[in-house]
Amino acid sequence: MKYSYIMVHYGELSTKGGNKKLFISCLNRNIRHALSIDFPEAKVTNDHDHTYVTTEDYDVNDIVARLQEISGIQRITPVVKTEKTMEAIRVVSLALMSDEEGETFKVKAKRADKRFELDSYGIMSDVSGHILRNRKIGVDLHNPDITLMIDIRESCACISCHTYKGSGGYPLGMNGKAMMLLSGGIDSPVASYLLVRRGIKIECLHFAAPPYTSDAVIDKLTDIIKKLNVYQEDIKLNIVPFTDLQLAIYEHVDEPYCITIMRRMMLRIATAVAKDHNCHALATGESVGQVASQTLESMIAINDVTNYPIIRPLATVDKNDCIDIAKKIDTYEISIRPYEDCCTIFTPKKPKTKPRIKDCEYYESKWDWQSQVEACVKGIKSTFIKNGEIVYENSTPEEK
Ligand code: ATP
Ligand code: MG
């Protein structure tokens, strides 16, 4: 028997109280969009507690797999909807069970409609009895091969033998937008994914230092963003011309402080662009202790130049776990393509691991970096990448 609907259980909705309406409309919009390309006939509706997707002629497992990539969904249950009579429930339950292999089963029942003729226990014993009379199978309440779930809703009964985990979090767009510093390494694409999964939209900012860095990095970033489009349909990539400012840093700053000062400049530029582009936070792929500029002392010196929140989703994540996520979201192979990053080209031999703000300010008093920061912001070129296609290039598109 084919599952005719997929029931979507909401993520962290209970914590959202008054925002329930916004949560649901945002999630439904994201679901409609995510299914529009491969499953255009699937229809999305909702009642008070769930969203339902019709499965039409599609493979149910394919739709489930796509839904698992959408943030704000806790669980995904393919169901057969049937009328609310015990007769109909028995028939559908047995038909669904007959498609399942296993030697033991258990029935779980719950009622949203408390006026239904039987309570949960009554439904369980009635349906279990019907199955035992019609199939050679045992009952195992603790570790069954098959779990049959019956959910009595207001307008129908939903019956299923399968439920799948969703990605959790909030629907994308509910938690504002962050400016993500994207380097082309392994970490920042993973950090991007974790932000999006939390419901925070991203826009990307990359610092390029041609001719020291090659144009190939732009292709690499574009390929990474195309992969991230699975989770966020449209992502803007802003490229900052960073060479002149970076050379000035190396001219005026003693080597151990170069990376710290460079990071401070990056954050100044990122803050200006974030303000301009309606982002409410900056984000990076930094992980505490990974390299010299990622010590807590360094973070104090770097954070000092901005009053924007800096989200570091990987702050406490182990590199191996990060690589696992990169493989899961399919950015790993792109990230390990060889490339030069502006950070790696100019890496000092002995970077300062405990930089002091006073010393940073001393070095920064040596030249007019303010006009260079402005030039960087002015010189930004933007590309807009939507559903794996570059749709807008080399200027700043209007905010949607
Ligand atoms: P990744 O794997 O993302 O490159 P990493 O471990 O190599 O990270 P760093 O190169 O020290 O670490 O960079 C730390 C973070 O700084 C990156 O995750 C990214 O957010 C940001 N960053 C570094 N270089 C750039 C760049 N050229 N443009 C934009 N952001 C950058
Ligand atoms: Mg890097």
| Computed structural class | alpha/beta
Mean pLDDT value: 92
Q: Report the span from N to C terminus.
A: 43 Å
- Spans of at least 5 consecutive residues whose pLDDT stays below 50 are 396-400
Beta-strand percent range: 15-25%
What overall geometry do the principal axes of the alpha carbons give? elongated
Number of helical elements: 14
Profile the largest sheet.
Answer: 9 strands, mixed
Helical content stands at 25-40%
H-E order: EHEEHEHEHEEEEEHEHEHHEHEHHHHHEE
Question: Over all CA atoms, what is the radius of gyration?
Answer: 26 Å
State the total count of DSSP E strands: 16
Ions, cofactors and other bound molecules: adenosine-5'-triphosphate, magnesium ion
Describe this structure in words.
With 400 residues, the protein is α/β, with parallel strands linked by helices. It is built from 14 helices and 16 strands. The protein has helices at 20-36, 60-67, 86-98, 120-134, 187-197, 216-228, 243-252, 258-276, 296-303, 319-328, 332-335, 342-345, 357-364, 369-378; strands at 5-10, 44-46, 50-54, 73-82, 104-111, 138-139, 146-152, 157-160, 164-168, 177-181, 201-208, 234-241, 281-283, 310-311, 381-386, 389-393. Helix 7 runs antiparallel to helix 8 (258-276). The relative contact order is 0.12. It binds adenosine-5'-triphosphate and magnesium ion. Adenosine-5'-triphosphate binds at residues 181-183, 185-188, 205-207, 284-286, 290-291, 293, 341-343.
